[in-house]
């Protein structure tokens, strides 16, 4: 059986020292191993940006695509072979700016994939511009006088779009993050895990210390019920999204694959493509 | 007895114009006639003039006709807009409900018949269409029982009574015209057909059927005219094969899903038209760079921008060849008949797998939506070639020390072995970033050069595509070589026959493989011709420019262009070619 070390490869990440994404990589590796997966069972599909490089640092199958399109690639892949464990990953710019449309529709569609967003509230790889997750007033190269747009609230939006699994982690809490990813992998349907993953180079406001001071950990709230949609929305609004843990889960909602009429139980990619003569004749006869 | 005639039905969009044409022509097809139907419609759901023109013949035809023998009109607008096409001894069958009048100067004979009234008496005003079908058939002397199976196919699920009522409407329409003129009109009597069974379908049906035959199990697409029928057919049919269609949020998602699915090992396709293809261009580059097969159908329509959504044009040729930034290997093929839509779709999947690159199947509105008689499709021509695809770990070298499978191994032909995710010892990474043989990002200059050359080598020697050009060349040194693409094949053929009858020596070349360009096949034909005229539905001569780029000889290549949204008529080809031969230009 594979251990988390089997999911490591020899490539040295080009992330800055102290980048939150290191923990996300480690948590994924641990979660894959603890779920009994082998490297060949997993495909990590990623977008563009610092975080998008993650697929190259994982010893598994990987697909590093184009900006904002990790989710449609991942959904196509999962529909092609539902025997694979498909995880999509990328940054907040990737998922909540250029790829927002796909995020909302992936939630609606509910294909059984896990989506991990490394949220650092800034654009790192293009050297520090504002992101849709930057707070109002946030100063960057593209907002020298402070951002005049409000920050997006992705988790409230995900819940209102019908998400079946919404969680949030923090790079400093590897244990909780690993557990959340494990839960996401187990969830049948689309799971969204947003991770506060600080950018140590371009975000001097939302630092590790700042998060430690502001984040509310749901694991410590015994009365919190993640199956209660209203409670989840209320908690997110109360904390302005500064919350970690499993926020909402609906175990009843069937995945997209389960609802497709006639969709095969095992991966399409493994099945015979040939069209039988008799079937061909039947199809053609309809045009006579 | 005549060998062919032309019939048109028109009215307000939403009035069942389409199904009137459908039922009339399906019956004729079953009687063994060759048909070609073209729909004129607007980009709206209800209202606005729409018509279906059907050409009926005892020999194969692949284009609309210049003129019209019978016009069925459900409103005065139909007469006003279409009467000019009528023969001097043509016929107008019009609903007496709107007191039809022929415009001044039109010689045709007008029969004003209470279509709606008769239909109401039978039971339902909507059956006026069937009354018109019956009247039309009686004029041609067609056996009315030919309609029974068609009506049954369409209405059986609504019950036997509905079928019977529709048949009654057809009979009453026929009776009525018999009363008016005592039987079929001598001038419209069609010669007996050969009674052979043939298919009757649109290009989009053939593309969809081809995708199933090729083993495609996933389609991701966003609805757009004129490609939606491909998706609609597959939504109906793919579940029988365990597959599915995803109607995506946009075209970018559609092509990205197709790339994901193909990476996963399933043959997947998307289909769209110009505006959708514009959105897909970035991802087409990803398919090229990651060497992931992808089949993309572009059913061209009027551009630019939203342009003419429901009209004919062939103006995406440049975009399909040149779009996507950077340089990738890409294949563009253009079927010219409905049969080729079927066979070429199968070939497109084989080429995509074989060369591990995007393959664009270029169609156009007239080919995609024009309904026509099709020779039986040959099951034995279905052939699946998945290229260098490894589907299980058998024979794969064990990977040690977290090494990766060399997905981008540098090979002589440029194509590398491809392993599907899930296979042990096949672990690899694909990326749109420049990468080394294992798929790891690398910007190193030598690597870049090596990988770029490897990718471009795939198509460097040409591709194995059957019939990259269609040649009809009887003359060693013709006066004229007419060149075309996609749906103009039939109309060029007819224009050419008329020119030949007038003593002009004409060859015909239809180009089906646009990228890589089949210079070796095209050049000798251009060489031998005194003059070359390229016929295309666009304003700038994209195909002519492509030919000049590859074979030179610009001084003898000119073009006939049409970009008003309508397909060419045979007379336009004939007249403009003649003018060209006399004056040296159109």
TrEMBL record, chain A:
Name of protein: 2-oxoglutarate ferredoxin oxidoreductase subunit beta
Native organism: Kroppenstedtia eburnea
Co-factor(s): [4Fe-4S] cluster; thiamine diphosphate; Mg(2+)
All residue ranges annotated as the Thiamine pyrophosphate enzyme TPP-binding domain in the record: 48-195
Domain Pyruvate ferredoxin oxidoreductase beta subunit C-terminal: from-to ranges: 199-264
Keywords: Iron, Iron-sulfur, Magnesium, Metal-binding, Oxidoreductase, Thiamine pyrophosphate
Coiled coil: none
Magnesium in keyword set: yes
Pfam families reported in the protein's UniProt record: PFO_beta_C, TPP_enzyme_C
InterPro entries: 2-oxoacid:Fd_oxidoreductase, OFOB, PFO_beta_C, THDP-binding, TPP_enzyme_TPP-bd
Keyword Magnesium in annotation: yes
Molecular function terms, GO-annotated: iron-sulfur cluster binding; metal ion binding; oxidoreductase activity, acting on the aldehyde or oxo group of donors, iron-sulfur protein as acceptor; thiamine pyrophosphate binding
Biological process terms in GO annotation: cellular respiration
UniProtKB/TrEMBL annotation, chain B:
Protein's recorded name: 2-oxoglutarate ferredoxin oxidoreductase subunit alpha
Keywords, in A-Z order: Oxidoreductase
A biological-process GO annotation: response to oxidative stress
An MF annotation (GO) of this entry: oxidoreductase activity, acting on the aldehyde or oxo group of donors
NCBIfam families reported for this sequence: OAFO_sf
Pfam families: PFOR_II (PF17147), POR (PF01558), POR_N (PF01855)
Organism of provenance: Kroppenstedtia eburnea
Domain Pyruvate flavodoxin/ferredoxin oxidoreductase pyrimidine binding: 210-453
Sequence ranges assigned to domain Pyruvate/ketoisovalerate oxidoreductase catalytic in this UniProt record: 14-174
Source species taxonomy: Bacteria, Bacillati, Bacillota, Bacilli, Bacillales
Alphabetized PANTHER family for the sequence: 2-OXOGLUTARATE OXIDOREDUCTASE SUBUNIT KORA (PTHR32154:SF20), PYRUVATE-FLAVODOXIN OXIDOREDUCTASE-RELATED (PTHR32154)
Domain (Pyruvate:ferredoxin oxidoreductase core): residue spans on this chain: 479-573
